[in-house]
Amino acid sequence: MTDGLDQVKAWIVKRHPDRDDIAPDLDLIENRLIDSLSFVEFVFLLEQVSGQSIDMDTLEVDSIRTLEAIDRTFFKTRVS
């Protein structure tokens, strides 16, 4: 797990003290770990820790549905 993904996971766990861990394939939206009230703040966090600008008009929800998807989309090394 990358440092950025660790920060994302810590952000979610901090808001859900009933959880001490999040499985990489757990659906964050269906399980209400990211809801409509925290969505914009969550996207801002992703921008900060990944160093990428995120266009809300083209953001695909599946790219942030699980920690695995977030890691694949925002933190895996990209070949130019």
Q: Would you summarize the structure shown here?
A:
42% of the residues lie in helices and 0% in strands. The protein is an all-alpha fold.
Tell me the major beta sheet: none
* Element pattern in H and E: HHH
Shape: globular
Q: Structural class of the helices, strands and pairings?
A: mainly alpha
From the alpha-carbon coordinates, what is the Rg to the nearest angstrom? 12 Å
Q: Indicate the proportion of strand residues.
A: under 5%
Helix content: 40-55%
Question: What is the tally of helical segments?
Answer: 3
What number is the mean pLDDT? 91
Poorly predicted regions are none
Number of DSSP-assigned strands: 0
Q: Span between N and C termini?
A: 22 Å
Domain Carrier: 19-68
Protein name: Phosphopantetheine-binding protein
Organism: Streptomyces chitinivorans
Pfam family, one: PP-binding
Question: How does this structure look, described?
Answer:
With 80 residues, this protein is an all-alpha fold. It is built from three helices and no strands. Helix 1 runs antiparallel to helix 2 (39-50). The longest helix is centred in the first third of the chain and has 13 residues, at 3-15. The relative contact order is 0.20. InterPro entries: ACP-like_sf, PP-bd_ACP.
